[in-house]
Amino acid sequence: MPNEHDGAPCAEEPPAPGSMPKENGTKAPVIVSACALAVALACGIASIAIANAGASVEEVEPTAATDTDVAHEHDWAIQYDTVVHDEVSHEEVVQPVYERIVTHHSVCNDCNEIVDGYAQEHIDATGHSGYSTNVPVTESRLVTEGRIDVIIDEPAYEELVATGRTCTICGESA
């Protein structure tokens, strides 16, 4: 309860460092509760150490437990499989390319055979009526041969695909 004077300063002492006033006006030292917690922990550890001081090695070691007996938080490792994807391709047919060339020749008037240099022999042998000179003859010459091209749309590749997970501690699969 605070002191009441006739205007004189209050004679109450300031709060001690580390303590906080409670709602009802009394002081609750924070340090005391922290120290009490530390002492309780130290006593608990000391009592365990004293209890095990006389125990043999066989008594201290835990017994072998099965995976289901041990409670733990799972440490999941992801399992992967490799999936091989074949290439995707298609074929394109490239047609042969020809060029047209016009040349001038002597041609038989009856069978249209080119008779350059032997026109008279051709007429004598076949009995055809004659030939014409300087006749334009259109020929086709191959410029590029035809072929089939394989076009790769998507190359072959391998892909890692997650297939599940396994706990590294107990071996459980999920």
Structure description:
The chain is an alpha+beta fold. The protein is built from three helices and eight strands. A hairpin with a 5-residue loop joins strand 1 (19-21) and strand 2. The model is unreliable at 1-5, 7-14, 18-28 and 55-65 (pLDDT under 50).
Tell me about the biggest sheet?
2 strands, antiparallel
Number of helices: 3
Average pLDDT reading: 75
Q: How many strands?
A: 8
Please identify the oligomeric state: single chain
Classify the beta-strand content into a percent band. Answer: 35-45%
Q: What ranges have pLDDT less than 50 throughout 5 or more consecutive residues?
A: 1-5, 7-14, 18-28, 55-65
* Net shape: rod-shaped
The helicity comes to: 10-25%
Radius of gyration: 54 Å
Strand-helix topology:
Blueprint: E1 19-21, E2 27-29, H1 30-53, H2 57-60, E3 76-85, E4 88-94, E5 97-108, H3 119-126, E6 131-144, E7 147-154, E8 157-167
Antiparallel strand pairs: 1-2, 3-8, 4-7, 5-6
Question: What keywords describe this structure?
Answer:
alpha+beta; two-stranded antiparallel ribbon; rod-shaped; 174 residues; 8 strands; 3 helices
Write a brief structural summary.
By secondary structure, the chain is of the alpha+beta class.
